Amino acid sequence: MSSIGSNRAEHPSVLAALVALIEKAVQGMDQKLGYHGQDRFVIFYYEPRGEEVIWRDSRSYGFATGAGQLFIDELEPVAELHNVDVGGGGSPGTHVLLIDRVDRRAYFVERDEAIRFLTDLATQRETAVPLPSLATVVKITQELIRQLAYNIWERHGKLEGRAWDDWLQAETQLRLERWASRQSK
Asked: How many domains does the chain have?
């Protein structure tokens, strides 16, 4: 499949926090990385000191012995492709892997943003506010996506063969903008 490219210098920090992972199969990745809980959203990051993968959901956290090599072999190359630091080079990364287990999507997210997101989920659960799907919170028209994808295509030098990448990047950016605006209200 295709991937969404994100150059953090081109986008405001809120938009740069999320990079969708399209090229890696998400189904079962959470279990391969040692997570067996029930939360919809879970983050993973590599801890170089113990060469382990740490997982965290909105309720708890833990680690997976032996998942470090999978993380480095499967996810670090994708992160490098998107100029995202997930660690693996001997130091903790600035980003984590966030998996939406319901929508079967995975994202690289800045660590602080991901932790804030999980904390907000826990707070919502405690106050019995139902968590809406990101898809229902964000109403984006095909026309908005088309216009932004065209702008991205122009900004990338009108490169051929990137239409799908530019479309997915535009859709992700619009969803992030909507999500961020709702979070600030």
From this structure: 2
